[in-house]
């Protein structure tokens, strides 16, 4: 008989617990409906220790109300990040419970609310970033990624923001995750202009954008190609490793990325930039030549080859540099820096000529040498002037270029050009 009494007592205790759970959940719902999310959360905390053994229907309701309470508190800017994460956790627990039970009373609304949680957390991260609170921003972006591991763009943003914070260890961890996922980021943006405000907006799909065009709310549709980010990721990994003093690991990281994605030209450029940073100019030129084989009209790359070649003391390299600058100008006739560097290249050796002139005396032999050196210097000026004039035209009223041109005009007795340039503001 005692055993039966004990069984009856245990049953009564369980019933009491079930009623207590229901009461607390109902009390929380009531508080939430009256706008008191904090009171709702407090009521749910009383039932927290008992919820593990509750029926699935009560569990689902409990997590749904808890998620809603956390979300409301976050919207009121009360421990926003903590409550948004609490809401996400509760909604995910709810979805898991209903999936196992085969029922889905709250799942649809919970999934909708999760989208709202992600949006708010993302907006908060953006606000932090704009306020230069990069550490907080990176953490929130990573948390958004944690809510949906398919949303890898958030992991990419988290890594980039960690770099802005100079938290290289965290950034490196995120970038390595992206590399393991073979994340590309390559894609397409579908854009159209909103007629009401004139702002261009991005749509998730071409279908969504075209529907807005059909409705008459948008116009001027266009497509924007999003390039692969693998090169940038590999480059940032290597730069962080260089910052940490591990150049061999940096080279291996970018080389491994290239092996996995042999046709990605952005990765070749990342490897090239790495060798440029480590002053291996020959390897840099070799890799850039690989890119130019695929992209022969890239003026920037020809310009870069000109810069690298121009730094060499080798005579042939100087000749090569001129060819690279001219090629950049051929592709882009308004490439102002190419004109400027061509002029600088033409003036290479002027200092040695001037130093030699200054060392000469007044003897007949020295005066003859002086005249020869003067002609040599004048020829340098004549070869540089056309490029400097074009650079001045493209740069606008650049004081340094103007001053250099005036000195050259004066040295060459080009009076008319001197006066015309002098008169310009």
Topology:
Layout: H1 2-33, H2 37-47, H3 56-75, H4 80-101, H5 107-130, H6 134-147, H7 152-164, H8 168-180, E1 187-194, E2 200-203, H9 206-215, E3 218-226, H10 230-243, H11 247-260, H12 265-277, H13 281-294, H14 299-310, H15 315-331, H16 336-346, H17 350-359, H18 364-395, H19 399-411, H20 415-422
Helix pairs in contact: 1-2, 1-3, 2-3, 3-4, 3-5, 4-5, 5-6, 6-7, 7-8, 8-10, 10-11, 10-12, 11-12, 12-13, 13-14, 14-15, 14-16, 15-16, 16-18, 17-18, 18-19, 19-20
Amino- and carboxy-terminal Cα gap: 111 Å
Count of helical regions: 20
The proportion of strand residues reads under 5%
Q: Globular, elongated, flat, extended or rod-shaped: what is the shape? A: elongated
Give the low-pLDDT segments: 1-19
Helix/strand order, N-terminal first? HHHHHHHHEEHEHHHHHHHHHHH
Give the overall pLDDT as a whole number. Answer: 85
Q: How do the strands line up in the largest sheet?
A: 2-1-3
Largest sheet: 3 strands, antiparallel
* CA-based gyration radius: 34 Å
Structure description:
The chain is mostly helical and 425 residues long. It is built from 20 helices and three strands. It has helices spanning 2-33, 37-47, 56-75, 80-101, 107-130, 134-147, 152-164, 168-180, 206-215, 230-243, 247-260, 265-277, 281-294, 299-310, 315-331, 336-346, 350-359, 364-395, 399-411, 415-422, and strands at 187-194, 200-203, 218-226. It has a three-stranded antiparallel sheet, with helices on one face. Helix 14 (299-310) packs antiparallel against helix 15 (315-331). The protein is elongated and about 115 Å long. It starts with a helix and ends with a helix. The model is unreliable at 1-19 (pLDDT under 50).
């Amino acid at each position: 008989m005692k055993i039966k009494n004990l069984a009856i007592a245990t049953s009564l205790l369980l019933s009491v617990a079930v009623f207590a759970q229901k009461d607390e959940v109902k009390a929380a719902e009531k508080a939430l409906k009256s706008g008191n999310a904090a009171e709702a959360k407090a009521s749910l905390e009383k039932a927290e220790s008992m919820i593990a053994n509750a029926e699935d229907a009560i569990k689902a309701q409990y997590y749904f109300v808890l998620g809603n309470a956390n979300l409301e508190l976050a919207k009121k800017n009360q421990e926003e990040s903590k409550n948004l994460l609490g809401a996400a956790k509760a909604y995910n627990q709810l979805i898991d419970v209903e999936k196992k039970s085969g029922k889905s009373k709250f799942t649809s609304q919970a999934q909708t609310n999760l989208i709202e949680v992600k949006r708010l957390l993302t907006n908060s991260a953006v606000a932090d970033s704009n306020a230069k609170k990069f550490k907080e921003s990176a953490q929130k972006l990573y948390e958004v990624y944690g809510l949906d591991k398919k949303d890898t763009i958030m992991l990419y943003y988290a890594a980039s923001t960690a770099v802005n914070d100079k938290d290289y260890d965290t950034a490196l961890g995120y970038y390595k995750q992206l590399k393991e996922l073979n994340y590309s980021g390559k894609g397409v943006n579908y854009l159209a202009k909103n007629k009401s405000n004139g702002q261009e907006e991005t749509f998730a799909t071409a279908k969504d954008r075209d529907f807005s065009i059909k409705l008459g709310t948008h116009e001027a549709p266009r497509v924007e190609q999003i390039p692969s980010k693998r090169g940038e990721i590999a480059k940032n990994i290597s730069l962080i490793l260089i910052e940490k003093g591990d150049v061999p690991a940096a080279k291996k990281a970018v080389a491994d990325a290239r092996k996995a994605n042999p046709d990605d030209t952005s990765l070749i450029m990342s490897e090239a930039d790495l060798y440029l940073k480590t002053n291996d100019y020959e390897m840099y030129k070799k890799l850039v030549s690989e890119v130019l084989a695929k992209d022969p009209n890239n003026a920037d790359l020809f310009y870069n080859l000109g810069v690298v070649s121009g730094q060499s003391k080798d005579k042939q390299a100087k000749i090569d540099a001129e060819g690279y600058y001219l090629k950049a100008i051929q592709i882009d006739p308004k490439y102002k820096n190419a004109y400027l560097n061509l002029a600088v290249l033409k003036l290479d050796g002027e200092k040695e000529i001037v130093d030699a002139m200054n060392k000469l005396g007044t003897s007949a032999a020295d005066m003859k040498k002086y005249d020869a050196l003067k002609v040599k210097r004048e020829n340098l000026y004549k070869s540089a002037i056309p490029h400097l004039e074009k650079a001045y035209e493209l740069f606008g009223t650049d004081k340094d270029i103007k001053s250099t041109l005036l000195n050259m005009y004066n040295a060459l007795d080009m009076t008319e050009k001197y006066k015309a340039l002098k008169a310009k503001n």
